[in-house]
Amino acid sequence: MPRDNKKRGTRWNTITHEGMRNIIMYEYLPSLLGERIPAYSGYKADLHPGISHIFQSAAFRFGHTMIPPGIYRRDEQCNYRMTKAGQPAIRLCTTWWDSNEILANSTVDELLMGMASQVAEREDNLLGTDIRNNLFGPMEFTRRDLGALNIMRGRDNGLPDYNTARAYFGLPTRKTWNEINPELFKRNPELLRSLMEIYSNNLDNIDIYLGGMLESTQGPGELFTAVIKDQFLRLRDADRFWFENEQSGIFTKSEIEDIKKVTLWDIIANTTSIDPDSIQRNVFVWAKGDPCPQPYQLNSSMLEPCVPLQRYDYFEGSELVYIYACVFLGFIPILCAGAGYGLVKLQNRKRRRLKILQEAIQKRNNSEGKIVDKMIVREWLHANHRRLVKVKFGPEPALYIIDRKGETLRTFNFQDVNSVSIEESQEADNGPNKGLILLRIPRDYDLVLELDSVASRRKFIAKLETFLTSHKKHFALAQTNRDLMLAKAETKERRQRKLEQFFREAYALTFGLRPGERRRRSEDNDSGEVVTVMRTSLSKSEFASALGMKADAVFVKKMFNIVDKDGDGRISFQEFLDTVLLFSRGKTEDKLRIIFDMCDKDSNGVIDKEELSEMLRSLVEIARTTSLSDDHVTELIDGMFQGAGLERKDYLTYNDFKLMMKEYKGDFVAIGLDCKGAKQNFLDMSTNVARMTSFHIEQLPPEDSKNWAHKQWDALSTFLEENRQNIYYLFIFYVITIVLFVERFIYYSFMAEHTDLRHIMGVGIAITRGSAAALSFNYSLLLLTMCRNTLTKLKEFSIQQYIPLDSHIQFHKIVACTAGFFSVLHSVGHIVNFYHVSTQPLAHLRCLTAEVTFPSDARPTISFWLFKTVTGLTGILLFVVMTIIFVFAHPTIRQKAYKFFWKTHSLYILLYALCLIHGLARLTGSPRFWLFFIGPAILFAIDKVVSLRTKYMALDIIETELLPSDVIKIKFYRPPNLKYLSGQWVRLACSVFRSNEFHSFTLTSAPHENFLSCHIKAQGPWTWKLRNYFDPCNYNPAEHPKIRIEGPFGGGNQDWYKFEVAVMVGGGIGVTPYASMLNDLVFGTSTNRYSGVACKKVYFLWICPSHKHFEWFIDVLRDVERKDVTNVLEIHIFITQFFHKFDLRTTMLYICENHFHRVSKTSIFTGLKAINHFGRPDMTSFLKFVQKKHSYVSKIGVFSCGPRPLTKSVMSACDDVNKGRRLPYFIHHFENFG
Known about the structure:
Strand order of the largest sheet: 8-7-6-5-11-10-9-12
Binding site for heme b: 64
Structural class: alpha+beta
Largest sheet: 8 strands, mixed
Distance between the termini: 93 Å
GO biological process, one term: molting cycle
Domain EF-hand: 551-586, 587-622
Helix content: 40-55%
Oligomer: single chain
Domain FAD-binding FR-type: 950-1055
Membrane topology: Multi-pass membrane protein
Number of helices: 43
């Protein structure tokens, strides 16, 4: 462009710009304000030209009151154009953000001529409906109220109140509400009352916008007129380049006069094709006589209704897909939980069926092929409870009541009876009541059965008669009234209530309480209950049940005969009460007499050695241990006679018996009966002192008395000190996780605005990216916790003192739960994010990411984002896989259906593969998961490769042995160059089953032995299959089964040799690690293998229900005691499934054990040097004993292995002792089994 033309263009632009300013200042403002604008007096340099807050936030908004509900369009001949819908004007509320469509269907000339003729809304305090609740906000789908926005804008900008603003502009302040607009409030008094109520009748609280609008009548009120006038005058007078400023030299005086002559009519007439005579000269005002008057003043009722906003809802059409997707994701955990529950039930059902099948085969063999009849009925238990059962007739002379699971609920035995009483209820054949049958035999509860009809009852009676006749039993059939039958029926539930009352009354009377003191019923009912109790008597089976024993036990028979003084075969309430009173409050002499009478089988006043031998065998039977040999019994009896100075006698008189028991006289003071079957303990609990004399626990120095706060501080300090490593690493873990979350959250909230993600997705993107960073770290860390070979190797170095490697499984669970939380948060966040993305127009999405291209202008729906993008599809798959892994890792599923737990956990490979793919689409940013994953993945892969050295090596089985309590011992070849420590474990698989299904078991062989062995208890499906396969009845060595192993891996007990003094506690099958550790200990000390190593003394506490279940371990202990030439090992055995420590049976066992140990230096029950204790150990007292005895060391290792309650009690004992803040300090290591 030539230089002169460019200058000329700039000049005309300036003239046009100044012409517009002239129109606004000297044409529009006078029309709006209704007064002339003062003449220009020159540039004022000290005047501020800025836009004031009160103008832009309040007065500037006055024009909103003039907005009409529609816009007229006309031509030069005054023809007003109708809309396509036949409406007289374009409705404002339907055209928000749609100017392109209006301009496409209308000319600018038509719009200008229509607006020139159209009269605006009155300049008052009212706003049109189109801007009230129909204002369409940007990129949002909510209706807005322009008046409310104006009020809120003033408050956001901190504008002063209405009166303060008036005072500032030199206007008088309002004293009363009526002064604001008297005419308005006179016409609308309700408006005045509403205002006074809203503003608490305080004029100084009125918002500027509201007060200014209320002043309006035929234009802005005093306040808004002053504000608008002030603002425009300052803009004019403070502008050095204002066109009237001759000093600026921009325009000459004649040019200024020409500019001042320009009106908006001139511009319209010269820039459009509109005939100048078609519009009035003053286009801002239409006066009578001007061209083309409007047809009528528009109001909203004349126009089409506002179009619903869903026209602009970009989410339209995606609702069902979105709802179904959310429901699907929500139901995945429920479906997985249901599948897990079903699998557990299925496994239980398989085990029940196998058990029922085995029992059926056994019974079929015993019954020699007899046919067993069955019938489905309902058993009547009491008025409000009936249960559907199956009655099986025989093959033995008994009825078996079986539930739907195939388990026997009750056996109605006819073996020892000759006659059966049968009663049937009296019902009409077509009556509403169902047929009832009552069966009654001596010394058993009544059996009441309900059948569907009288015909079914006749069928049942016929089968029962045939069955009884086949077993040569007599029966008496009688009919009775239905209600009378049910009232007299002595069912198990009714009998149980009577027995509970029986034992309650006996307990109350025994300890000096009046029976009526604890009752809450009326005296009449009390007397009735007392009579019922007095008439109740116990059978032998009920007495045995109360003692917690079987009815055929020798001790029960002897005790029953003593208590049943009248010999009628039942124990009356008075007989039972006399006995428990004697044991609880009687003299020692009387208690000894009862024991003597129990031993005196023939009641001849003396006890011969045969009778004493029978009594000893009954006590061994109570202990559930192996039976005594004749030599042991003879040795024990001879020792007892010799100890009492009666070696020349073959029998004992009562005086001889007292002499023999003289040294135990103190033990009989508190002797009593522990009726644990009746849930009543008839013992004086005030004398319940721990019987642990073998520990020789002496009185420790008294601890300093401390107040409550000091004790709590000590407890907290001890807890923090004992768990300091776990707490420290958990703290570090959560700090890193939270920092990663917060860093990404802040980045996407405040530092990534340029990416438009925050604008489109809102705060959801910050939450999802933060949770993505946290779960990436968590998922990667999970791999490290499962690097078993690495963890085992680390235990050989001193680093294990600073890292709690034994807690890697617990840490794995904590990390997994944390990852699960952030995974759910991430998933929910992205569901919300995809919703926001689906509501955006295509123009916004093209700015979202360069990685996704759209081949056409078709807007992508929610189904596209969820199912057609890599991020959405892999996200759904990840959620499904994660949920399956988490649900099937539940302890119940892991225990009952381990195979499915292991298979679902193997999906971790798919999980990590999907995590790597998930971010490749780069929808919200570059993928970062690989940064966390690559290091742990390499280490985990190397760890897995190390496991392959033994995993696929098939090892021959040397021998198998089936042991009591469903334990099997498997001995197999040791791989060459395999090194391990005692207390370590392997993952074991058998080739006859799934060769890739491995299970964890502790090695029971010692490191110096040239073979490997495991003792495996049958608990789950796989171990039961293993046990049944190697059962001598089923095992076929010709099949040559092989063993495969992974490991060995470090266990919680392998560091026992690092402590100078160690305490080992084993419970249940948890004794398996100690089979290896104790063998290793005695081998090392006897061969000086551990010379220079810390271990000098080991205390081993074996806690078991009974010896009978772990005879194999007794053999191990026997071999260990034989090899222990240095006495480094001290063993204590506790039998837990027993009675109170001062119960009669426990006391007698205790006496026999002491006698035998004194004579032969071994236990009467096990043959070991180890002493047997009856009951659970007092771990706190024992640890205090060890603490005092070995006060020269600084720390003692405590190792426990067994059920969770056992390890928890040992941990609590360590905590209690460590609270005393005395040395040595106890450090607890543990493993849980079961």
